[in-house]
Amino acid sequence: MGGRRGTRVRAAVTAGVWTLAAAVGAAVLPAARPTGPVAPATAPAAAVRAPATCVAPEASLRPSTADGPAVRRVKERGRLIVGVDQNSYRWGYRDPATGELSGFDIDLARAIAKAILGDPGKVVFLAIPTNQRIPALEKGKVDIIARTMTINCERVRQVAFSTAYFEAGQQVLAPKTSPVTAFDDSLKGKKVCTAKGSTGETELKNESHGASVLTVPNQLDCLVRLQLGQVDAVITDSALAAGQAAQDPSVRLVGKPFTTESYGVAMNLKDEDLVRRVNAVLEDYRRGGEASPWMLAYRKWLAADLQGITAPPEPRYRD
């Protein structure tokens, strides 16, 4: 197949193989899987409780380096188990040249492992689909989720979040030749894809602008369907969409972000001491201005596609 259509189908097949590999391939790095559940043993009374009225869901517990049950569990195991994505270019993806997981979220996970265990390599990565992030924490499959997860009022009643480590917003991704111009009535009669369990799905349930909606387990699946012509547009985080546009120059972000969202590291509601410890790590990660670990990671992974960011988001605390 030649021409534009051939290029798009080849790109789709490549991405499809990548997604299949993510589903059946080595989802754990390093190779050793954890033995037994990692569900916290603390009593429900110790759970991190969301405020009765959700006004600022991104406000988290104040940082602390004190060891509690959850941190001791990680230290006794000798590994931090982290749920990540391996399909989001620039955030969490398996580098085809090295086979290693790479990206902004991966660097952050390693920084947390280094702070708790003294070694950034003492981490087990589990590839978790978007719609399985909360169940993975609730069932104790992972200690933390570092996977471009938006903090919102619904989720803070299910899992505990760190302070925000990045800010983005929902935006539309469409082919450069598409008549779709934004998250507006230009979507009427179109077919739109978003990940199940994502903020995009929630927004489309609230207002679809006359579009039909397809939900899939992962955002990369939406890009494959867009390349194959099975959908007309994708609704996803602007940060993720920028990475997808970098992968496929035939698509682009259109309109402006129509939400403001904060990404947080997610943990089990019972792991209050781990939440505080991760927040302490984030305090250090943000510190140092242009030379901070956060800014170094931003310039390495994101600056080419998400320009104009000059500093990490300021943390907010509630107690």
From TrEMBL:
Organism superkingdom: Bacteria
Q: Name the chain's protein.
A: Glutamate ABC transporter substrate-binding protein
Q: Which UniProt keywords apply?
A: Signal, Transport
UniProt similarity note: Belongs to the bacterial solute-binding protein 3 family.
Please give the Pfam families that the UniProt record associates with this protein.
SBP_bac_3 (PF00497)
Q: Where does the record place the Solute-binding protein family 3/N-terminal domain?
A: 79-305
Signal sequence interval, chain numbering? 1-26
